[in-house]
Amino acid sequence: MYALVDCNNFYASCERLFQPRLEGKPVVVLSNNDGCVIARSDEAKAIGIEMGTPAFKIEEVFEQYKVSVFSSNYTLYGDLSDRVMKTLTDFVPKMEVYSIDESFLDMSELIYTDLTKLGIEIRQTIKQNIGIPVSVGIASTKTLAKMANRYAKKKYKKIGVFYAANKELVQEMLAFTQVEDIWGVGRQYASLLKRNGIHTALDVTNIPEEWMRKNMTVVGQRLWNELHGKASVEWEYEAPAKKNICTSRSFGKLTGDKTIIAEAASNYAAACAAKMRKQNSCASSMCVFINTNQHKIEQPQYSRSIVMEFQTPTNLTGEIIAYALRGLDIIYKEGYLFKKVGIIMLGLVPESQRQTSLFDTIDREKNRMVLGTVDKLNKLMGKDVVRMASQGYKRRYKLRAEHLSNRYTTNINEILNVKI
Fold first, then answer.
1. Which domains does the chain have, with CATH numbers?
2. Which residue has the higher pLDDT, 402 or 204?
3. pLDDT tens digits, 86-119
4. For the packed helices 115-129 and 74-88, what is the interaxial angle rounded to 10 degrees?
5. Smallest Cα–Cα separation from 264: which of 307, 318, 324?
6. Contact (Cβ atoms closer than 8 angstroms) between residue 290 and residue 341
7. Coil vs helix vs strand at 196
8. What per-residue string of b and e applies to 142-161 under the rule 16 or more CB within 10 Å gives b?
9. Using an 8 Å Cβ cutoff, are 170 and 39 in contact?
10. The pairing of beta strand 134-139 with beta strand 2-7
């Protein structure tokens, strides 16, 4: 048996955790640059706020229903997510972190455990110790566990737990679930199924296996197996190393100032380097790109990128920043207002398998030790406390975040004040 633990309306729940007055009131969280709605409380959903709606289009709705609006606070969300995941490790021998707010739990070894009781205990423990509400779905495969989690939210919201313990309960859940709500079924496959009179997950289980394999290839075969209780989705107890790493953000406002763009590029390059060191990999090349805002058609448009090959695969911050700024010098063009600059690290290889150039003169072992210390300091004292000079400190390119809450759990200067 497997369980899927999902934090309810996670970003909105994180904001509510430190502002209890928001309980029972509509809350939304906006994307980078306060662009679109990316998280909603149940109350916000009830008044018709759709996911992905641009914030400027529903400002009147925010005002009319007194919606509490927040900018994305990923530092806070990441820390609370880490606390939830660490708490979950106490309940099961093996776990797969699926996303910032979801984890699959392997319960196959808990053969003498009351799984419904365990699900309730998980939910209560996380709520009491961290303050985040979660739902728990338990079933014989990952796809069914994902479905059981959704069913718990829709039909057993008060309990927050659903265990598909027998055939009858599984059938009940399958009949309730529309094909577009099945994990792994996208818009095109959902349309294909509906055109053939297949509307629910239960309908999928009643069609021939050969039809699924023929019309939906290996994806359909795997789905058919999972819905029949045959585990076919592999587990990833450790996240696989990324093949490419990208860091890119839109500027808070359009700019043609090259110094601002260079500062942003330096910080993005440094972030990519740190991510590579964390997974012990090096990049063989990098792409630097820059572009204006294509939606502002009244302004001159320009977009360009360049790939820079490294002499030796690297994850050294200083070297990567130098290449990034060299690439920016080549593609930057005056007379334009730019919206975004970005860095993509390409051709990632394990650090232990890096092939050094015969003409490489950099003391990479020394740099590796220095940057290892830098990474430890930044983890202990805060992001970018120690940085390269070209990264600057003014952050003139930073995103618009007019509704940003405090970093309550990671910054001593923003800790919650309690009045007695």
1. 77-227 (3.30.70.270), 245-391 (3.30.1490.100)
2. 204
3. 999 999 989 999 999 999 999 988 888 899 999 9
4. 140
5. 324
6. yes
7. coil
8. bbbbbbbbbbbbeebeeebb
9. no
10. antiparallel
